[in-house]
Specification:
Helices cover 46% and strands 0% of the residues. The longest helix is centred in the C-terminal third of the chain and has 10 residues. The N and C termini lie far apart (82 Å).
Length: 188
């Protein structure tokens, strides 16, 4: 691990600035094939992330192992402010790792309601399936996050316009007034 990576993970903004001024490469990969931005994002260090991005860090750089981005690291750990920062710098809200897991699927599975809202606002696809071929609303429901599941179902086009089971067979017409059952009607 490089000094820049260690400083980013600790959230030591002064050390990060000093190392960058001394010429440390902003997107250098460490032993785990992650950038300093991955480390800052994973630990929710928004200010450090901002400095790295201003200095040219690649917002969608993937790690070399599972192809996860800094946005995925921040979302996985519930750092909404860091997710918001990365989205402002153009992070792809639909990027998937090598398992097919997306940021939205992970945020939904963890029950991060506000993060799910931010990702949807940024254009995350609520129909994109994750690692186990489940949609984000299914992951949320499976993990007991009903409010997140409802929000995602309301934003999933193929669910919004789909008729409810049995709705097409329901009778909606009422009996004409002259065919109403008498009050003393009893079933045989």
């Amino acid at each position: 691990m490089t000094d820049l990576h260690e400083a980013a993970e600790r959230g030591d903004i002064d050390e990060v600035r000093r190392l960058l001024e001394q010429g440390a490469p902003v997107d250098q990969l460490d032993d785990a094939d992650e950038t300093a931005l991955h480390g800052a994002a994973a630990f929710g260090h928004v200010e450090v992330g901002h400095v790295l991005l201003e200095r040219g860090a690649e917002v969608d750089q993937t790690d070399g192992d599972e192809f996860r981005t800094a946005l995925m690291a921040a979302a996985r750990n519930g750092h909404l402010s860091t997710v918001t920062l990365l989205l402002e710098f153009g992070a792809n809200p639909n990027a998937a790792d090598d398992y097919g897991e997306t940021v939205l699927v992970r945020a939904a599975a963890e029950g991060h309601l506000e993060m799910v809202r931010a990702l949807l606002k940024a254009g995350a696809n609520p129909s994109q399936r994750g690692e186990f071929e489940r949609m984000p609303h299914e992951e949320a429901a499976l993990n007991g996050h009903d409010e997140v599941a409802r929000l995602l179902r309301a934003h999933t086009p193929e669910l919004v316009n789909r008729p409810r089971p049995g709705s097409q067979f329901r009778r909606t017409r009422q009996r004409p007034p002259n065919q109403q059952r008498p009050r003393n009607y009893e079933a045989l």
